Fold:
Amino acid sequence: MTLFEPFEHVPWYPLVFPIFWGAFALFLVVIAGGTLVDRVTHRLQRVSRAARAIAAGDLGTRAPVEEEDEVGRLALSFNSMANSLDERVRQLTELHRGLHELTAALDRAEVARAASSLLGRATGAPSVQVAVLDATGEGLELLRRIDRRPLGL
Structure:
């Protein structure tokens, strides 16, 4: 006598093994699917973290490219975009620096002009010289001379 012999006369007995194996297969599918979903979700979260880091100003952040699937292609595209953005910001920073230097030079010229005029009027001197030094105080940036003497003297 076997363990299942008493149940052999029950009408649903022939369905026990297919139901058992079906439930076992479903269990395996759920475990494998959950593992796959978890893995893909984890990789997408890494791309998302990289996007948030770039949005916060860390332009050196890149998304890890682990495989050559859809998520890997997304990470490659993201990294390409981040490289382009980093290059554009670098170019704009250089342009800003150049504009700032130009503006500072124009401001110094205006200051020299105003100082020459003010000193000439205040002192009544026939000529005024104004020298503007660079930020270190070493190099002569601009020499402005205003002669207040009438022509021919």
